[in-house]
Design a protein that fits this description.
Largest sheet: 5 strands, parallel
Radius of gyration: 25 Å
Strand content: 5-15%
Oligomer: single chain
Order of helices and strands: HHEHHEHHHHEHEHHEHHHHHHH
Distance between the termini: 26 Å
Strand order of the largest sheet: 2-3-4-1-5
Number of helices: 18
Shape: globular
Amino acid sequence: MKDYRESPTDRHALELLLSDPLKRNEAVFRFIKMIDTIDSNCSIALDGNWGSGKTIFIKQVKLLMDFMNPQSNLDNDVRKRIETSSFREFACYDSYSTVYYDAWANDNHDNPILSLIYATIRSNQSTLDTEKKRSLLNTLGAIADAISGRSISDVLKQAKGTSLLEELKSFDDLHELVQDFIDSLIHEKGNRLVVFVDELDRCKPDYAIRLLECVKHYFDDERLIFVFSISLFQLQHTIKCYYGYNFDATRYLDKFFDLRISIPSINYDHLFKYKFPFIESGYCYDETCIRVIEYFSFSLREVERYMRLIRIAAYQEAHSRESEAFSEQKGIQFAISHIIPIVIGLSMADMTVYCDVLSGQNDKPIMDILSN
């Protein structure tokens, strides 16, 4: 069986891009074309539930943007593989320098600005030499020590007996330094910079909020686009954990995201055919599994888990029995081909209904799926 688990690595993103088992390549192309029409500073929320494949999606977008930029540091072997694919002629008006930032992996850092810029430098997209990188980090560290955890209003309150202009100057200096950093990153690497921020909705509430505030206040260059790969539902919950459950998290997030786009749905039939090529033979077991996945609207991660379970449970047994015509085998065959995949799906989707079905108190899910 082919391994198409959604392991969010660059290598796996490339394999899925070349084979397209999820039928999302067209959506990847449309997303890039949309970015290419934006001519100002913009923050985009790519919304999808946990396990829906957002990380793979944005890594595929980044991969193609790097491919289309001849000045990027894309691995030569990767570039050659894409060049031999059917979408090698896809192009953008601008060339883009790109950065991937895993917010969850960095939410133990004290300062989001330092963390984001350090991740950018480590992405190997920067043209800064070693000395300039070290100087930049030292300067940022000194400024961050002075303003860490402080807002403009905090500075105003604490400015008693000091020069207000001197206090505010640190914010201006930091903004200017960030602008210089963006200039150095874009210079000779592309016309614009796209930063993909992943897993923000999994971060600690205080870090998620500080990161959003930093992007809003300091990364407002018109050549810069941020793409946040998030579950808006989960991020709203994170915001409410910080400000209180009566806080209007939806309106709060509106000031950070200029566009909200939902991740495209999965083509379950096509994905299942890649998982189990024998589906072309029309096995009832395979068809039932597809209906179960659709009925419960499983996420991509849930689909992978479900496929592993049904393969363990009865896949070989189901396909070996379907060729038998003896009447005494038909009852067992029906249970294996239809009931077992439904019950396994129920055990993942809703344990309460699962127990009701097993106890004979509820047959609705089984009848709904079999009716298809």
